[in-house]
Specification:
Layout: E1 3-7, E2 50-53, E3 65-73, E4 78-87, E5 93-102, E6 106-117, E7 120-130, E8 133-143, E9 151-159, E10 175-180, E11 184-190, E12 193-197, E13 202-203, E14 205-209, E15 215-216, E16 223-226, E17 231-233, E18 238-241, E19 248-256, E20 259-268, E21 276-280, E22 285-289, E23 294-299, H1 312-316, E24 321-326, E25 332-336, H2 340-343, E26 344-349, E27 357-362, H3 365-370, E28 381-388, E29 410-415, E30 423-427, E31 432-435, E32 441-446, H4 459-463, E33 468-473, E34 479-483, H5 487-490, E35 491-496, E36 504-509, H6 512-517, E37 528-535, E38 558-562
Parallel strand pairs: 1-2, 12-20, 22-29, 31-38
Antiparallel strand pairs: 1-11, 3-4, 3-10, 4-5, 5-6, 6-7, 7-8, 8-9, 9-10, 11-14, 13-18, 14-15, 16-19, 17-18, 19-20, 21-23, 23-27, 24-25, 24-28, 26-27, 28-29, 30-32, 32-36, 33-34, 33-37, 35-36, 37-38
Amino acid sequence: MKRFLGTGIGIGALALIIGLMLAGCGGGGGGALPHVPNSLGRTCVAPGTAVRNSTRAAASLISPYAGYWTGTFSAGDTLSGTITLAISNDGSTFSGSVSGTNSSCGPVSISFSGTVSNGVLTFTSFSGSDGCGAISGSMSGSIYSASSPYISMRGSLSHTSQGPLPANASAYPRQGTIQCIQINTDAAISPQTASVTYPATQSFFITVYDDGCNPMPAWTTVSWSVDSAIGSITGSGVFTPVSSSGAVQGYVYATFQGHTDKVLVTVNGDTTAPTISDTVPSNGAATVAADGPTFKVIFSESMDSAVNLNDSATLSASGFGIALQRNDTGGTISINSSNALAYGVFSWMTTTNTNDTLAFTLKSSAVLEAAGLKTLKAGRTYNITSWTAPSNVTDASGNALSTTGVSATGSFTASADTTAPQVSSLWPSNGATNVASDQPQFRVYFNESMDHTVNLNNSATLSASAFSITLQKASTGASLTIDASNALAYGSFIWMSTTYDNDTLAYVLKSNSVLTGLGLKVLEPGTLYNITARTVPANLKDQAGNALNATTNIPTTGSFTTQGGGGMLVGRL
């Protein structure tokens, strides 16, 4: 295993007072100290290929830092002792203190504070005193810079008030310098090996050791990766194994300051059978859709979504079944492998784990009724008298269900549809070409099946609809408005099915020959027309009786071009 070794500091709580005097901290001129194992000469992690870390990122800070400082005054006395620096993170504030001895003036106490940004220390205050008087100064510093791979602080000192003058000092003000040195750290991934069984997860983190080989909290500036054959890992080091029938091995990697450590991970084979953990609708559910309801079986883990129950052969071998009984009449609906595809469609969904839910969704009531099949009625309560999950579904490792019986039977109430239908699109769409000039259709597509008993060819129903469309020939500005007053003279309305039964209302102009015979205007071939105004009939409703939302998704303008070209048409627009 590789280890991270060199001069640096980790995030955490560290108070290290080294009982050894070191001088020349950074050499006053900025020279770097040699890179060595931690200052006590210890190796804190298992031996391996050493990675010497010559630089650190600005965000790799410590709180607090404790090391040495040395200094001199021009009068010849020397300063020594400890310096403590507390930094929470890059981009924040810091504070610290100096305690020690002036060889001529006795005990020294200095405090300072400032801000750190991109590893640069900016001091906003620096003051203190010793036995010879008050001390002021200015400092600068950096953390883990490329040229100085440790905490570097240098500055100037001056006595600003007079105390007893040392014998070796000739005068005030006395000026001097102050410097500090680094500590060293080792780091490695923890745990150093791992054995994980799907679907459990494993958290990895970096352990950092100080000069005394004491572990500190995990570093945060770590990039995690993993061999894809064994699983995936998050940016915070949480490993999720793959599901496999046998054991597989691979590595988890941590890249830290450009160096990478890795640990071997064993993913144990999954031999545990999946179970049914829940069903939908739950017992007593009161908001189940009457039109197109979904029945779900939720499993304890991810399942093999390649098992396709919409394939008739797969479905036939599944043993799937669900039986519903209407509470007030005793009428039943029995759906099984022989008729399920007539009633609905299967799909895999995700509830907690990927593809852990098998859903069976009934087709719309209109489709079922058209096929002569039973439907649910809004506002009625239904008992689930039996429910059998498909026996041929497996988890992602190929383990079959431990049982296919769904114990959670119960009842639910089909809720009424209270959602207003909406317009989903129009024809001709804006910019459409090759629109028929003879018997063109103007269509409105809705997002669900509509009540096709609303008959706009009835003059009273049409009059109440507010239907209208205005067409303008782009080249001349001549226009034609068709509305409730003349729509039945120009054409007729028909219901059509596009996506759902009766989800499309079409208004079709009569043939040009008929319109010309009536002295009415017709469209000209190969011509650009603008739709300058349009109003969809407001008295339309869906099959549940919900009125159309006649203001959403309805562009009032647009243009289209008719197909063909050529001949003159009497009464053309």
